[in-house]
Amino acid sequence: MEEKKQDEIEIDLGQIASVLWSKAVVIILTGLLFALLAFLGTKLLIKPTYESTASIYIVNKQGENLTTSDLSSAEMLTKDCQKIITNRTVLDEVIDTLQLPVEHNALAKQLSVSVPTDTRIIEITATNQDPNQAKEIVDTVADVTREKITAIMGVEEVNVFEYGDLPLHPSSPSVMRNCMIAGVLGIFLAALIVILHFIMDDTIKTGDDVTNYLGLTTIGLIPDVDDNGSVGGSSNNKRKKRG
After folding, report:
1. Which residues does 166 contact at the CB level (< 8 Å), separation at least 6?
2. CA neighbor of 57 nearest in space, from 193, 173, 181, 159
3. CA distance 121 to 160
4. Does pTM surpass 0.70?
């Protein structure tokens, strides 16, 4: 009994593979269509954003590099500096300096802070739809933060290790990534529809289907012969016969 079920499963999987192969062109075209729609949507509907990153470096009162014991850990350093950088006092000063038409909450969402692994450098990244403004924001934030960290954390000096570069290419959205995701999604959906249609199709097509579904044994098959004596006549000839 188990062998019979296993044979049926293998046959079904083979039929599914055969159906997918027969619809390969449609499935691939569907994937390409989804990729094209993603390309057009990304280009026409989504505004690109640009990132600019500045780096600052902290020196303690003894003129030595800060150790992990000074600020507990790199994770704590990140949290402390992020709190200072996104503080309303810092952001309001940046807004006033650059005359930005935004509130401090909106500006805070454009900023991110990170500490590269095994370093004591703090990286500040600004994201904006205007590449020039992204650089201006991150540079101003670095300058203002340098003064605030020196006063608040009691360190001797905070140096701007590197100001932000003018971004030449958008950081997001990624046209290639969106097209690939949409293409794979289109292929998957098309294949799923083909498989579901195959599984739900319970019409009898072969002699084996008669045996499997009806439990009957076929004695023979009657070929479809057209008026000219050829096997497999046209649909018009078939309708004439039925009439």
Report:
1. 52, 131, 132, 135
2. 159
3. 10
4. no
Q: Determine how many CB atoms are found less than 10 A away from the CB of residue 214.
A: 10
CA angle, corner 89, sides to 84 and 93, nearest 5?
115
Report CA-CA distances (Å) from 138 to 52, 89, 122, 173, 240. 7, 16, 12, 21, 80
> The tokens of 137 are what?
């924001």
Tokens of 11: 């046959």
pLDDT digits (tens, 9 = 90+) for 153-178: 766 677 888 999 999 888 888 899 99
The three-point CA angle 113-110-72 to 5° equals 15
H or E, element range at 128 = strand 121-128
Cα 93 from chain centroid?
A: 36
